[in-house]
Amino acid sequence: MSKTGSKEKIRKFLLANIGRVIESHEIQEAANGAVQYSRRLRELRDEEGWPILSHNDSSELRPGQYLLRQKPVHTERPQFTRSISARLRAEVLDRNGFTCQMCGLTPGEIDPATRRPVRLHIGHIKDKSLGGKDELSNLRTLCSTCNQGAKNITTEKPSAIWLLSQIRRAGQDEQKAVYEWLKNKFTK
């Protein structure tokens, strides 16, 4: 007796609902409550080329909504191994202070875009599809929202000089808010 995995269940569910806006809870239910349903959805989209739209792709969709407009065309895509070790993952999280490197959110905070608690992921600075490697210098911590929106974006981390110049340009209230945030972050 073979066991059907959550990705296969999601695949079948999406094919049965082509053209209909689907909520994330429906996808999770289709995967029998699998916690990693969003990862399986990204695998279908990014690794298998499924044209699954999200709020990042269409203004018609809200966060947590997805749409498969048409049946995917099978094409050969490069296969990537999931080779980021637990040790390397921990190094990246520690180096980045368990903070999303794009928006600054930390685990457990409520993401204003999705109204859900923040979960962190390890993302590539230079995407693997563009030749990026699974090494510390090419990895960063991202929240779910930024990780999905950052695909193939290679923005560099801002320098300390640039950050200080922006803080100096800000008003006193904004500077105090930055100070309080840094004080809370580093005195816990």
How would you portray this structure in words?
By secondary structure, the chain is an alpha+beta fold. It folds into three domains: 6-68; 83-156, DNA Binding (I), subunit A, CATH 1.10.30; 158-188, no CATH class. It contains seven helices and five strands; from the N terminus they run H-E-H-H-E-E-H-E-E-H-H-H. The chain has helices spanning 6-16, 24-30, 37-47, 86-95, 144-149, 160-169, 172-186; strands at 22-23, 52-53, 65-68, 120-124, 139-143. It has a three-stranded antiparallel beta sheet. A two-stranded antiparallel ribbon has the order 4-5. Helix 1 crosses helix 3 (37-47). The chain is globular.
Descriptive labels:
188 residues; globular; DNA Binding (I), subunit A; 37% helix; alpha+beta; 3 domains; three-stranded antiparallel beta sheet; two-stranded antiparallel ribbon
| Major pleated sheet | 3 strands, antiparallel
Strand/helix succession: HEHHEEHEEHHH
Radius of gyration: 19 Å
Question: How does the overall form come out from the CA principal axes?
Answer: globular
Helix content: 25-40%
Sheet/helix structural class: alpha+beta
Strand content: 5-15%
> Architecture of the largest domain, CATH level 2?
Orthogonal Bundle
Uncertain segments: none
Would you report the number of β strands? 5
Distance between the termini: 51 Å
Number of distinct helices: 7
CATH topology term of the largest domain = DNA Binding (I), subunit A
The total number of structural domains is 3
CATH top level class name of the largest domain: Mainly Alpha
Q: Calculate the mean pLDDT score and round it.
A: 82
* Biggest sheet: strand arrangement: 1-3-2
